[in-house]
Amino acid sequence: QALLGETGLLKHQAIILASHSTALAEVANQVLLLGTPDSAEESKVLFQGKWKDLLEQKPLLELIGQADVEVSDTPDVEEREKISKAMELSLGSVQPSMMKEEDHSASITWRCVKMYLQSSGGWTVVLIFFLSSALERLVMVGLDWWLARWTEEASPDELDLYLGVYLAFLGAVSVLACITRLLMPFTTIWAGAALFKKLALRVVRAPIRWWDTTPLGRVLNRFSFDTDNVDTTLITKMYPAIVSLSWCVGALAVMTGTFWPWSLLFIPLPVVLYFWLFQFSRKSIRQFQQLDSVSRSPIQSVYTEVLNGIVSCRAFACESRYQQRLSQLVDANSAAVLTFNTANRWLGVRVELLGAFISALVGLGFFALREQVPAGLVGMCFIWTTNLAVSLGFNCIFSSQAEACFTSVERITEYALEVPCEGEHQDLDTWRSPVAAEVFASSSQPLLMFQKVSLRYQPDLPLALNSVSFTLNRKERLAVVGRTGSGKSTLAVALFRLCPIEGGQVRLLGQDLAQLPLDVARRSMGIITQDPVIFSGTVQYNLDPFGEFDDQTCMEALQHAQLALTLKSPIEQAGSNLSVGERQLLCLARALLRKPRLLVCDEATSSVDAKTDQSVQLCLRRAVQTFEASLLTIAHRLITVADYDKVMVLQSGQLAELGAPGELLRTPDSAFSQLVQSMGSFEAAAIRQAVSASTRTTL
Known about the structure:
The structure is a single chain. With 699 residues, the chain is of the alpha/beta class. It folds into three domains: 25-93, no CATH class; 112-418, ABC transporter transmembrane region fold (Up-down Bundle); 474-490 and 516-695, 3-Layer(aba) Sandwich (Rossmann fold). The protein is 57% helix and 10% strand. The chain contains 22 helices and 14 strands. Strand 13 and strand 14 (654-659) form a beta hairpin. Helix 4 packs across helix 6, helix 6 packs antiparallel against helix 8 (216-258) and helix 10 (268-308) runs antiparallel to helix 12. The radius of gyration is 36 Å and the shape is elongated. The two termini are 29 Å apart. The model is unreliable at 63-96 and 425-439 (pLDDT under 50). It is a multi-pass membrane protein. One of its GO terms (cellular component) is membrane. Keywords: ATP-binding, Membrane, Nucleotide-binding, Repeat, Transmembrane, Transmembrane helix, Transport. The chain crosses the membrane at residues 121-143, 163-196, 234-253, 259-278, 351-369.
């Protein structure tokens, strides 16, 4: 009414409304009824004219197709005033919902380093890697020392001795170098795989509340940019930093031993300068890397939002606005990347200047002690001095860059350890739990019991369910109806433990649902949602993605769902080669494959036409009888629940009434009768006639 009524917002606009529902046909000036097309090019026009003229030409139930009556979401004036006041109170009390991203620009934590080293193959592999690197550099020092001694003291008679020892040193260096070079790629692969597994397991187990308060771009950033940093970039910075550090230690040892005690005069100064430069630059470089990582998340978020809503963007001509927004975000990220690279170049220039300063100091030392130091040791020392200048520069640069790359490890570690996990009995190392049949013994208890269940989505929001109690027996069909926001879908949220309940208890076959392992509880139930979830691949992959059932069982599930497909039939992305009805039937077959004790339909047919709705409802009735399951339907169309065993009406999260549809309609003051009457005389008459046909009574 607010949009299409006589005083609605669109009263001066020409409107074309395409729908399979007749609920809004009364406010239309003209009605165009289309039937099955005679050809691929044209649809068959069955009627064109006024709505009242159409009513005179078709029988009542045939006109609405037995399934086109929907719950009216238009409250009266008093209810609108109540809703407005409630919204004002809620908006005033609700805090910003999106969580702020953590700042990881501080120093690397031991928790982060520990997780990376443990993920690299364990402490044994890490110890072997560092020992082999240290021994390799020690043997290199010994090799140069032996070569210097050979040039100074060797005689022709001792050639075999010096040559043999020299070859032994070369062999040892080769073996140690092979160990470190082979361990490097394997430790990188192990660390990347282990961190990715921990990240993926934690994220997919995160509760709905976490997904509602975390922008999708942050999650994608962890799985794309941060994961790429761990897999490819980090090792290219960390390994040179480790190697250059070992070269620095070796060079300092050679220079100290050669010029002792004069080395104490000129070695500490450049080392202190290098250390100060490293400490000064590392904090800035790490913060710039953090800015780069954080500035990528909004780009991912906006890009994902645009892809999901590309049709709306084009319809409202918002392309230029989103292009401008993306340009601003890309500019901000480019500025962070430019600053990061500039800081690295700034550090590189100063490191090279310090290297030249060290070489000049050592050259002056050689000149001053030219009469006291043998020529072989001078050559050896000069080589290691050059190595020290280069290694200190490399270590300063690569250590800063490696620490900056460790920001990605820190961000992954944050999600892998701190993201909340559904259920208190989860084992993150396994995907499957024991089957529900091993947990639920034969019991005479009712299948499902809600005992004064209360639930709220956030602490600062009102109760979505308020002390709801009802019982669902085996092989019973229960429909849940109510206006938008009454708490219908919240029942499924509480049942599948998507959000913890605040009070009360949910019992499944006599057992407390909150005390069961989450996988076991969910595997005992099946659900068909409003939006069908279809994967690209084959029909069999959509039915049984984990390969738990044989072909015969999968075919039986397809037959129960009345779906004329083979197991090898291809399915395109999002099921685009299937109709909406076929997608829902495929989801129904997937649910029936596991023979659930309880089948939940959350407005599963609200977006399909009348014929498809009838097919789905027929399959559901057969499933209840064949598998001896119970059915809980969250209804969008009242006429589809006319033949259900019970109807439960919710109002503002509270149970208004519960009973058989016929009994509730016989009471004019009942909530169900008022809900039916609020949709107008035409729809109300159709629902009453459908209930009368199912109960064989007159209402």
